[in-house]
TrEMBL record:
Residues 16-169 form the Glycosyltransferase subfamily 4-like N-terminal domain. Transmembrane segments: none annotated. One of its GO terms (molecular function) is glycosyltransferase activity. Gene3D superfamilies: Glycogen Phosphorylase B. Keywords: Transferase. Residues 192-341 form the Glycosyl transferase family domain. It comes from the Bacteria. This is Glycosyltransferase family 1 protein. CDD domains: GT4_MtfB-like (cd03809). It comes from Sulfobacillus acidophilus.
Amino acid sequence: MNIAIDVSNTAGFRTGTEEYIEGLVYGLRRVGAQVVGVGRQTSALVPDKPHLGLELRRHPSPLAKWWWEYYGVRRVPRDVELLHIPFMAHPPARLSVPSVVTVHDLIPYRLAAYRKSVKERHYFSHIERSLPYADRIVAISHATFDDMREFFPHLTSKTVVIPNGVHPDFFEELDSQHLMQTARRFGLRRHPRVLYVGGFDERKNVGTLLTAMKTVFSRHRDAELVLVGAKDNLSVRRALVDLGLDSQVLVTPFVSRHDLVALYHSADVFVYPSRYEGFGLPPAQALAVGVPVIASDIPSVREVVQDYGILVDPDSVEAWSAAIEQVLDAPETAHRMVTEGQVYAEEFSWPRIARSYLNVYHDALRGRS
């Protein structure tokens, strides 16, 4: 099967969308599919992405992002049998080939703070008009499917649930020398080490984690917290100074996957305090690496972690500090979590996930025949 994937919304740095596309391409090729990328021609907006492993076919679209999403993506290469749009921006028309859209989350519908501006409201109005034209829709969790049922009930009959996958790098062992080199490069000097990977907007709930860590640090004076993903280091650092935590917390922006895998391996426990997610990829990555996971007890993350980590009330400072200390103070608990979690994480291997996508693609093709 010849599949085109719209890569126009990928960024110059590694984001969740880019991680998803790269993993999907890897998985599809492992199961025998032919995959190309399509994107806008404007190189400043769509640089070539060799790390995605795609042949990028660019099509004329000298205007802005919205033009591509409304019209440009309709120009599917002739040899392509199906177009996969890995985000919600489907054109407001039926395409010449079957189309599959991935819905990662419905945060703007669930949380009003994410649709305040006129531009944002216009964009989501476009989604509401255009999404029905997709032949099939993939929700990345049952929690996202439940949101689809609430906000797009007329589309659930053509929506299926396929979880995100974890890149094979997270399943690989790393040698101790590489881990020591990474620790030196990032200035990691303390143990035990608590790791957070993700964003820093309000729903990520990092403030609750920082408050909980004050208690943890009072009892584990040599511990450190590593925060990965902070775009605005200055504001985060100011918050740490205000809390008196700046000497025991290391903050870094987005890092390469190579470094991220090493940071997971160097951690004694991984924490994920988010209040709302469509899936929750970092906990799945941590399980694959073999790090004990403590995460918010919310529907999507509960799906990912299940019984292989500790789930806590996202807004309970006491629950967070108690759970972190439980793992740090009980090596046998940590060992059991790691052993069982790594076996379970194989369910998130991309070739396994890609086979489910192929079933959806074939179903979309049959729907056009």
